[in-house]
């Protein structure tokens, strides 16, 4: 399913390497097309570090929840 959204995305070529990417965080039916468009824009760029910020959907958090690992696997 993700490959289909990425195949359909056709972002324009950009000048310069983006330093920030803000992507919607909702169900696929609502935001996958927009997220694929944003991520495909980065296809030809390399990054050493990526910081992901998001909200908790399953547990109430008072303050900050921080992942203590070295890497994560994504689809």
TrEMBL record:
InterPro entries: MEMO1_fam. It holds the Pfam family Memo. NCBIfam families: AmmeMemoSam_B. It comes from Candidatus Kuenenbacteria bacterium RIFCSPLOWO2_02_FULL_42_16. It comes from the Bacteria. This is AmmeMemoRadiSam system protein B. Belongs to the MEMO1 family.
